Amino acid sequence: MESASDSSIRVPEVQLSSTAAGSRPMPVIGLGTAADPLDAAAMKAVVLEAIKLGYRHFDTASMYGSEEPLGEVLAEALRLGLVGSRAELFITSKLWSSDAHADRIVPALRQSLSNLKLDYLDLYLIHWPISCKPGTYVYPVDEADLMPMDFEAVWAAMEECQRLGLTKSIGVSNFSCKKLGNILNFAKIPPTVNQVEMNPLWQQKKLKEFCKANNVIITAFSPLGARGTNWGTNEVMENESLKEIAEARGKSIAQVCLRWLYEQGVTFVVKSFNKERLKENLGIFDWELTEGDYEKIERIPQKKMMLKEEFVSAKGPFKSVEELWDGEL
């Protein structure tokens, strides 16, 4: 199934598993709303432009502080007729670690819906595979506030969110094969999505195969390296192999990265406040990478950007983090 963007571009969609009745498919490209600092006015302007270009998937989180302005601009888009109905949109939000306790999850989702002025989400994710002290909403997290997650109790509450109709689908974010496998062992409603860092410099081959085997869709964040963030890098957009492919194909490096993800069967969330780049990011669906392109990408040295240390505000060694994560992220 596909949704139209503009007269020359069509955005493919994927059907998620284990969704509630009446769920719409997930557009393969979404627009992220995380920013530090968040400029709400600029974000609202870019969301309107994105909707005009054909974006229908918008990604937020309680910790981003962007739920309220996103809800306002989506309501404006509906009033202006830029979107025919709420059913055309696909909205993702995430549960913060301080609310990752069984009794806090349904109320946390209700608060997100209130912020967004929506009756339901299309997808609700556990933001990190770790809990922290209830009532603490800071990032990075103070290491003293970290707590092991009660995965069974937390996931049961996520399932309750779907049963109540507060979200059409549930999933996870930043989960390793081990952590995701743990959830799959006891889940009555399996996770539909795992949102993780993924790009040609961090290809996540093991996780990609594990998710594929278990019918879990990967959504890639930082598909272009998250330039401009405090943990991102220019290395993706300055990679010589990607430059060579882009020049040979007459495309941008960003388009090469996104096309590579798309051909992996991966969905992705991009972030740009630039209209031309937003449009450029949609220009990836009518061409293909070559076998030679794949050989070059295969040889790129791998380097993870989002480290466990980014999650906590403490000076290493991060012993408690390693213990809580079982050495994996």
From TrEMBL:
Top-level taxon of origin: Eukaryota
InterPro entries on file: AKR, AKR4A/B, Aldo/ket_reductase_CS, NAD(P)_OxRdtase_dom_sf, NADP_OxRdtase_dom
Listed Pfam families: Aldo_ket_red
Keyword Cell membrane included in the entry's annotation: no
Protein name as catalogued: NADP-dependent oxidoreductase domain-containing protein
Species: Corymbia citriodora subsp. variegata
Domain spans labelled NADP-dependent oxidoreductase: 30-300
Pathway(s) per entry: Secondary metabolite biosynthesis; terpenoid biosynthesis
